[in-house]
Amino acid sequence: MRRPCFKGWVSRELAYLSGENTLNLRRLAFLAQGAAPRLRERLVLYAIATDKALRLKGFLYREDMIAEVDMLAKTLNGVDLDDPGQAECLALPDRYRKALLSYKTAYRQLETRNASKMLRREKSVELQKKKGISTARICRALGLDPGNTSSYLRDAEIDRVSLEKATDILRYLQKSP
Question: CA-to-CA distance for 41 and 52, rounded, in angstroms?
């Protein structure tokens, strides 16, 4: 799993929220001003991140959105949106801070996932020693690769198993006599 860059993340968000497979600014601006107002924040942030704010303003007919694009373009000028910690300290309207918080959550998903796997590993190793269950027995019962499972349990190489497999190992050890 890789960390998302801001442009890629906001592009996926736009595609998801619009329900269309396009990044056409004219179409997205039309939707954001009418049928799909949830697009508004993501669209403005996308336009600023891709240096298309001026072009977006040409497609807008609502004065409040034009003013928002201008205000955000000035506020976010020189801010690296790929760094989620840098933009959160700025004085932005709440809905834009929420959008950036969503990006920050996606950005930190890798660390959260790895921390979760590490907690599962620690509990699994503790149960494995307490119950005297071999790694080979775990692999046979769950159909796991012995090398990856051994590296995960013995050497704490958490990248060798998925979060789902780490959960399966822990559940197996909890249920075993």
Answer: 14
